[in-house]
Amino acid sequence: MLEIALGSALIYYAATQAFDLKEQHPETVRYTETLDSRNNSFTRMHREPVQIKPALEDQFRGIVRQAYDYSCGSAALTTLLNGYVGTQLNEQQTMSGLLRYGEYDRIIERRSFSLLDMKRFVAALGMESGGYRGEFSDLVKQGQPAIVPISYAGFKHFVVYKAYKNGRVYVADPALGNISFDEERFKDVWENNTLFLINVAPQHRQNMLALHEKDLRHVEDATVNRYAFVDIQYPQFAMEKIADKASTIRLERNVNKDSDNYGQYEHRFLRLYYKNK
C-alpha cells in the first residue's frame, strides 16, 4: 500500500513539474523547446515562461486615448489632469464636465471643445488655469506639461506637450500616442503659439507625463516620408553574392536535359542553412 501511495505521489510530482501547473501572470506566454530529442522523457522538454506586453500599451502610456474623432480636447485635458494634477478621471467624466461648465451651445455647434471650456471646467475643480500666447522658448521654459493646439495632416488637434530635448518636442497625442516632432516641424504645426497651463503646487505635481527613456526612440520625419509610399526593391544580385561567399563549392554533373551544358561537370554552390534549435 505504501509503495502505491509513494508511486502516486511521484507521478503527481512529475506531472505537475512537466506541465507547469503553477499560477502564471495573465500576460505570460509559455513556449516549449526540445533540449535533447534522443531522451524520450518529460525531462527533454524545457518550458520557460516569458511575459509579453502589447506595444499599444507603451504607445499610449500615461495617455487617455480619445474615444471619438472630435474628442481630442477632452482626452488631452483628462491626460493632463491625471498625469500632472493627479486626478483619476475618465474621458466621459471630463466630457460631461466640459458640457456642463463650458459653452454648451457652441460646443454642440462646432462639435469640439475650446480652451475656454477647459478653463471653466478646471475652475469648477478648484484649480487655476489659463490659455496663453508665447514663443517656443516660453513653452520650454515653463518646465511643465501643457495642452497645445496643432494643425496636423489637415486637421486641428489638441495634444499635451511633455518635454523638449536635443532638438525634438515630445507630446502625448490622444489619437497617436507618445510621439515626437522635430523642433522646426513642431513650430510649423503649432497653432497660434497657444498653450494651456494648469497651476499646481510643486508638492502636488505628478510625473506621469515626465519624459521616459522609451520616448526617445523615434524615426525621423524624413525617413518616414522616404519609405512610406515606396516599394522597396531588394538587391537580389548582392544577396546572391553574399550567399555564394558563405557557401561551399562542389563539382557536379549537369543533369538538366534542357541545359546547353547537359552532361558536363560544373562548379555549383552548396548553400548551408542553419536552424537555431
From TrEMBL:
- Out of the domains of life, which is the source? Bacteria
Record Pfam families: Peptidase_C39 (PF03412)
**Residue stretches making up the Peptidase C39 domain:** 66-197
Spell out the protein name for this chain: Peptidase
